[in-house]
Amino acid sequence: MEKEKAISVKNLVKKFGDFVANDNLTFDVYKGEIFGFLGANGAGKTTTLKILCGLSKPTSGQINVAGFNVYTETNKIKNNIGYMEPKIFALRGLNGLRKHSLLWWNLWFKIKGY
Asked: CA dist 21 to 1, 25, 64, 102, Å?
């Protein structure tokens, strides 16, 4: 029995002019999995999340979230996910591990039913 895909990304490319934020990114996230992005600043993590949320259009690639196409069904995606970006300014006065922990705690992506 094949696992159900919550997210499917194949050859995602996102360009901003000459700058390539995502270059042929491919991955799947299956129902029940916990998945995270790690990478340096400017590696394309936030850009990928914004595309998955329907907040930004990819330049090319095949991307589905909860079975919905990011090109044609962004409203359905938005109705089936939750996403909250961390607000750096809210962390003023905190330092070190506490700031880092709160930053990651405030970034989440949840798909209904997955």
From this structure: 35, 10, 19, 26
End-to-end CA distance of the chain: 17
The average confidence (pLDDT) of the chain is 81
DSSP assignment of 86-112: --GGGGTT--HHHHHHHHHHT-EEEET
Residues 6+ apart with CB under 8 A from 71: 57, 58, 63
Q: What is the CATH number of domain 5-80?
A: 3.40.50.300
CA-closest candidate to residue 64, choices 1, 73, 48: 73
The tens digit of pLDDT for each residue in 45-97 reads 989 999 999 989 999 999 999 999 999 999 999 888 877 665 554 555 555 54
Helix (H, G, I), strand (E, B) or coil at 80: helix
